[in-house]
DNA sequence: ATATCGCGTCAAGTAATTGGACGCGATATC
DNA sequence: GATATCGCGTCCAATTACTTGACGCGATAT
């Protein structure tokens, strides 16, 4: 199968993958499904099906009554692989209108409800300019939606990385106004106007570069059974989860899971996990921040 | 271009899309990139590039010095469309190891950090059986990881929908043990053994079917500026956001955003939005639950 | 100066795909 | 219970997509 996979043309491979996909998700497919999805003739579709049958004969059987190929109980995906999470994500993307149903291979989107509050989506042009700036070490002028939302402020930033947390996209950047590194909410950037080479070394962003191990344990106020379940869900070893994390991002992770709330304020169910080394994280973050500010000031001094 | 798009073969269209993609994300691409990604000859790749140039001549220019095609400033995506969020999601998927880098079109994954605590991923076979059960109205026996994580419990459920919230997947199901509808965490289902036709009508799951409008406003304890910014971020109209939501899912949405925490317990920054009609939601949910339980009991009485 | 690399292109050959035609079996229609 | 319909499979010649091989061109590296 591996050899077969290598010598098959890219297009044919995709079509076999499609067969695999539909068998997995719908349990059935038609010759015409294949023909319509890829814009090929029925003859070619028949040939493709025959080829799939040669590779994985036990996976499907034609049901004359239903006029469709159906998945057998022995079915094992031969092409789409073991990580099906990506397709689940497609469903989420369709529900959020990030992706069109036609751009997926789903015939019927499974009855999946996505529980989220939709936010404004990112402007492609902004994203494009921002990515360029990151890649080519540029300093850019951006129009940043002020807190009031009405007045538009111009900022000069030199972004060097992007981060994603809880549905929000952040831009890690040096700020000319403050001469330090901070996070900008990508969806609040409306326009990128000018760009020029940046003179700031992103290696000075110690809050970004330095990582710390977050030591996470189930909330001890929960019953032992519940704690064990949570340990299993997060695949904890020895009762704790050690998650390396950039210092500047640690707060987002903490916010996401209510790790930054003092114990006792929330019901334990709302705070299923807690952070053991919070103090250490706080101190490390503050120290790194200080280091960056001083290094940037020194660099500016040398330059001017 | 539309006509061109229709008459182009599926494979060619994908390759033009690839050119568009690379121009967007990397700002550049090679003939050999195209050839290697799709397993075609360099000649064919040249032909494809020529075709793309015919369709969108202003989008790219060959840079002899760099030996690469480069994006021009006038670049406007001609194939990949306006919703680029789907590709951002791919990056998240790669970072979370749900997807392989090779299965995307990214040459270099942009320096994106994904802030999340990875959870155990879903077993494809379980997902497959569960989807079948939903689609064909089956009752299935599942092995559900008990709270202790060690003892395995068998449950008989008839699932009828799937929900996704904050990285977790839930299965909305009727439960034989309790004769009511409840949620099962998909990642805690280890195995699906037997299946048979279900006799329970999912239309009786009123907590699922009935929707309620969640009325969400910025936390009034925040400064007016901050409130305005949050209103903008969530695209609120008249200062509030009305989000229709299935009753059974309303709690997940509330949990995600700390809407279910009494005011004053958390710092306002950790509770940027609040729910105005919490009492109404609670009552509606309880009423629907009661209705379901009674309807199910009646149905059982008629049956037995 | 010379080698190397990526590009473009011409020409001939091969593989993929189409269009047309036919038969087969299961369901729906009257 | 005859008849139409639909989706499938398959044979054929014709067409299109793609490959293999060969050559020249310009920019960079040695």
From TrEMBL, chains A, B:
<feature type="domain" description="WYL">
    <location>
        <begin position="126"/>
        <end position="192"/>
    </location>
</feature>
<dbReference type="InterPro" id="IPR016634">
    <property type="entry name" value="CapW-like"/>
</dbReference>
<feature type="domain" description="DNA-binding transcriptional repressor CapW C-terminal dimerisation">
    <location>
        <begin position="212"/>
        <end position="281"/>
    </location>
</feature>
<dbReference type="Pfam" id="PF13280">
    <property type="entry name" value="WYL"/>
</dbReference>
<dbReference type="Pfam" id="PF26109">
    <property type="entry name" value="WHD_BrxR"/>
</dbReference>
<feature type="domain" description="DNA-binding transcriptional repressor CapW winged helix-turn-helix">
    <location>
        <begin position="12"/>
        <end position="91"/>
    </location>
</feature>
<protein>
    <submittedName>
        <fullName>WYL domain-containing protein</fullName>
    </submittedName>
</protein>
<dbReference type="InterPro" id="IPR059019">
    <property type="entry name" value="WHD_CapW"/>
</dbReference>
<dbReference type="InterPro" id="IPR059020">
    <property type="entry name" value="CapW_CTD"/>
</dbReference>
<dbReference type="Pfam" id="PF26107">
    <property type="entry name" value="BrxR_CTD"/>
</dbReference>
<dbReference type="InterPro" id="IPR026881">
    <property type="entry name" value="WYL_dom"/>
</dbReference>
<dbReference type="InterPro" id="IPR051534">
    <property type="entry name" value="CBASS_pafABC_assoc_protein"/>
</dbReference>
């Amino acid at each position: 199968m591996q050899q077969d996979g290598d010598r098959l043309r890219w297009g044919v491979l995709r079509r076999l993958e499609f067969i695999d996909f539909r068998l997995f998700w719908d349990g059935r497919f038609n010759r015409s499904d294949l023909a319509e999805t890829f814009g090929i003739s029925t003859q070619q579709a028949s040939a493709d099906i025959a080829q799939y049958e040669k590779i994985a004969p036990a996976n499907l059987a034609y049901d004359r009554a239903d006029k469709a190929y159906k998945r057998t109980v022995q079915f094992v995906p031969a092409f789409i692989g073991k990580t099906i999470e990506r397709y689940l994500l497609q469903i989420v993307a369709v529900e959020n209108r990030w992706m069109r149903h036609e751009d997926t291979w789903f015939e019927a989107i499974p009855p999946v409800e996505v529980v989220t509050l939709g936010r404004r989506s990112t402007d492609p042009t902004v994203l494009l300019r921002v990515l360029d700036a990151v890649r080519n070490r540029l300093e850019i002028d951006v129009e940043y939606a002020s807190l009031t939302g009405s007045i538009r402020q111009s900022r000069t930033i030199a972004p060097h990385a992007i981060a994603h947390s809880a549905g929000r996209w952040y831009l890690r950047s040096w700020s000319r106004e403050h001469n330090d590194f901070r996070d900008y909410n990508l969806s609040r950037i409306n326009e990128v106007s000018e760009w020029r080479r940046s003179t700031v070394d992103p290696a000075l962003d110690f809050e970004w570069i330095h990582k710390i191990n977050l030591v996470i344990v189930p909330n001890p106020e929960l019953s032992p059974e519940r704690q064990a379940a949570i340990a299993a869900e997060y695949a904890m070893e020895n009762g704790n989860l050690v998650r390396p994390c950039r210092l500047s991002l640690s707060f987002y992770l903490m916010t996401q899971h209510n790790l930054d709330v003092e114990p006792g304020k929330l019901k334990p169910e709302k705070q299923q996990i807690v952070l053991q080394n919070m103090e250490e994280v706080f101190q490390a973050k503050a120290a790194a921040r200080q280091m960056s500010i001083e290094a940037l000031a020194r660099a500016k001094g040398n330059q001017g």
